[in-house]
Amino acid sequence: MYEVCVVTGTRAEYGLLRPLLVKLNENDDIDVQLVVTGSHLSEKFGNTQKEIQEDGFLDYVKVPIPIDDDSKEGMAFSTGAALQKFAELLAKSKPDLLVVLGDRFEIFAAAAAAHMIGIPTAHISGGDVTEGAVDDAIRHCITKLSVLHFPGCEQSRQRIIQMGEQPDTVFNVGEPGVENCLNRELMTRDVLAENLQFGYIKRDYAVVTFHPVTMECNTAEWQLQELIHAMEQMPDLGYIVTLANADAGGRLVNDIWKCEAEKHKNWLVVPSLGVVRYLSAVKYAKLVVGNSSSGIVEAPSMHTPTINIGDRQKGRMMAESVICCEPKRDDIIEAMKTALADEFQEKAMRVVSPFGDGTTSDKIVERIIAFLKEKRSNHEKQFYDIEFSSRG
C-alpha cells in the first residue's frame, strides 16, 4: 500500500483535484491522505471545506495558516507559516508521494517542505505562463521542486523540459478543468436558477471573476472600477460574480463587490458557487468576464466566450473563443459587444479546447502507480540540457 498525500488550499483547486481524488481513493494500492488548508478553512472565503465534506471526504487533515493579512508582506508571512506547518506534518506522516496542483503560495510551501524532507512531489498544471501574477514564478519553483510533472497542454510540457526536467517525467495529460466540464453531471438551467434564487439565469447573463494582478502595484481597485463601469453600461445582462481568492489585494476587491451588489438588482455576488454550480453557470452564460484561469481553461470547453481582462493570464495558451482586452471600460465594453454578437457566439460553439480530452485523472493515476512501483531509493534529478540558439 502506497500513501499519497494530496493538498488543496482553495475552492477552485479542489474542484480540479476532485476527479483525481475519487480515482485515487478507488485504487486498492493507494491510501490517500487529504490535506485541507488556506481559504478552505476561512469563513470570509466561504468556508469551502463544506464542499469537500459534502463529497464524502470527511477524514482529512486541516492545516490552518494565517490569511487575514492580504498585503504582499502578509502573503510572504503566510508562506513561511505554511512551510513550518507542512514540514511538521510531512516529517511525521512521511507519504510516498505528495501531489499538488497549480501555483499558490501554500502549495509552494508544501512542495518546498516535501523537497527538503526528501518526499517526492508530483505537480499538476505546471509549465503555464501567467506574466501578470506572482503565481507565475511560484509555479515554476514548484516545477523545480517536483520529480513528476502533469502539464495541461503540449506547450507547457515543452516549457517544463526547457526548464531542465527529464522528458520521461513530463506527461501532457490535459487540464483537470476540462475533465470536469466534459464529465460532471451539471444542473439544468431551471434548477440552477431556483438553486441560486436568481431569475436572470433564465435570461442573458455573464459570469464574472476578477482577481488582483499581483505583479502590479495598487492596480486592483481602479481596474475593478473600470470593469464595474463597463458592466453598468451593459444593463440588459445579469451578472453572477464570484469573489476573489486570498491573494494580496483580494479583500479590497471583495469589499467593493459586496458594496456594489447592494446597488444592482441584476447582480448576484457570492463567495463561491462550488464546482457543479459554477460549471453549470458557465455553461448557460453568454460570456465569462474577468481574469480567472477558468475563463481560459473551462469556458472554451463549455463553448462559452471569454473576455480576458488585463495581464493576469498573459502568456497562456488561449482558445479562439477568448478575447483579450485592456482593463479599461471602453475596451471591456467593446470586447463584450463582440462576444455577444451572433457570429462570435457561433464561433465559440465550434472551438476545440487545446487542453485535453477529459481523461486527465485516469492518465495521472496510471503514471503515479508506475512511479510508485519503481521504488527508487532516491529522487536526485539530472538536469536535462537542450540545444538552443541564444537570441540576445
Can you offer a commentary on this structure?
- This protein has helices at 11-26, 49-54, 72-93, 105-117, 135-145, 154-162, 176-183, 189-196, 220-232, 250-261, 274-284, 298-301, 329-340, 342-350, 360-374, and strands at 2-8, 30-37, 61-63, 97-101, 121-124, 148-150, 205-209, 238-242, 267-270, 287-290, 306-309, 322-325.
- It has 392 residues and is an alpha/beta fold.
- The protein folds into two domains: 2-173 and 359-374, Rossmann fold, CATH 3.40.50.2000; 186-350, Rossmann fold, CATH 3.40.50.2000.
- α1 packs across α7, α3 (72-93) runs parallel beside α4 and α9 crosses α13 (329-340).
- The radius of gyration is 20 Å and the shape is globular.
- It starts with a strand and ends in an 18-residue tail after the last helix.
- 52% of the residues are buried.
What about the largest sheet? 6 strands, parallel
Fraction of residues in β-strands: 5-15%
Number of strands: 12
> What CATH first level of the largest domain would be assigned?
Alpha Beta
Gap between N and C termini:
51 Å
Q: CATH fold name of the largest domain, please?
A: Rossmann fold
Series of secondary-structure elements, N-terminal to C-terminal: EHEHEHEHEHEHHHEHEHEHEHEEHHH
**CATH homologous superfamily of the largest domain - what is it?**
Glycogen Phosphorylase B
Instruction: Give the mean pLDDT.
Output: 91
Cross-sheet strand order for the largest sheet: 3-2-1-4-5-6
Radius of gyration over alpha carbons?
A: 20 Å
Identify the overall geometry: globular
Q: Uncertain runs with pLDDT below 50, 5 residues or more?
A: none
> Architecture of the largest domain, according to CATH?
3-Layer(aba) Sandwich
Query: What structural category characterises the helix and strand content?
Result: alpha/beta
Number of domains: 2
Number of helices: 15
Helix content: 40-55%
